[in-house]
Structures are given as C-alpha cells and as structure tokens.
Amino acid sequence: MKETLLRNDLIEIEKQIWLLLEQSVKTAKSAFHQGNIATLNNDFPEQRTVVLRNINSEKKTLRFHTDIRSEKITHIKNNNAVSWLFYDAELKLQLRIYSKAYIHYDNEIANLAWENSRLPSKMCYTTQAKSGSVITEPEIIDVNKKDVEPELLDFARKNFCVIETKAFAMDFVFLNAKGNKRGFFDYKANEFYWRQI
Length: 197
Hints:
This protein is of the alpha+beta class. The chain is 27% helix and 36% strand. The chain contains 6 helices and 9 strands. It has helices spanning 2-6, 10-26, 71-78, 108-115, 119-123, 150-159; strands spanning 34-41, 44-51, 54-56, 61-67, 81-88, 93-104, 160-174, 181-186, 191-194. Strands 1, 2, 3, 4, 5, 6, 7, 8 and 9 form a 9-stranded antiparallel sheet that branches. The chain is elongated. The mean pLDDT is 93.
C-alpha cells in the first residue's frame, strides 16, 4: 500500500484504500478495523468508535452494528449525514469518508448480520438500560458466558440493528518524508483530484 501511496495515481490509490478497508473487516488487528463515526446531535457533532463489520467497494458502503436504543439512532433519524474517520499510524494514512446513513432493523440485512455475529458480540445487546442512560452503577455483562437463556438472546436481538453508510466522498491524507499528499474522491461527480494538505 505504501508504494501505491508514493505514486501519483489517484485511481490506483482509491482502489487500494477500499481493498485495505475490505481486509480490515476480517482482521481485528488492522488499523481500520475500528473507526470513528460522527453524527449530528442537532447542530453539534458527536463521535464514537465502532467496529467495521462490512464493506462493499463497488457500492461504496460501510456497515457497523449498534443498539437500536442508542442516541445515534435518533441523530441519524433526524439527519442521516455522517462522517467516518480512520487512521493507520504505521502507514501514516488518514481517511475521512462522508456518507449518508441508513438504519436496518428487523429486516433481511439485520437478520443476516445477527446470525453471523458471535455470541460475545450478541451479549453486548443484553443491557437493561439503553446506551447513554444515567444509571446508579455499571451494568456488568459477561460476554464470555456460554450457557445463555434463549429469552436473553431474544431480548438482545430486539436491541440489535445494522447501520449502513453510503459514501458520497472520501478525503485521504498521506504523511511521508518524501512528500505529504492529500487527495479527494467525489463519488457524486465521479471526479478524483489532489488537494493542498
């Protein structure tokens, strides 16, 4: 990837970035396996770190899983403009992906994602209080529990949803001793160009 970034071929750089994102879905140690997603809470941006669960480079979509009770769901319902931020410290590569977000709840996409999720991941959706609630003490969930009651998993499933984001633009910054670079991919206009860093 570094050799590609050192060249000035924006088409190839864009292809390699999406390939890197695809590989990051499968590899927990990858720098892009977790990214920051920003939503708008009225006029105020809010960020959080999420796990990248699915990529479709042709459709320019990225997915993550979340709790339907979380505040980010309200944010997306009110304004579905979101922004991703990824950073690879080894490559010194930053990505900002500008997207529109869509909620998948109790549909085919959500059902398939739930079926393919590991039990520890499913256990994260068993909290009684919704995300962001004021509570008297932390609700400890044993994500390594093996013997889980079907009723608890049914409850967790009702809280689970998939957020799919469709990118309309991407900005990358590559820092290197041989010269820093910044490029922009406008998927609406289908134009790629360099920007001053």
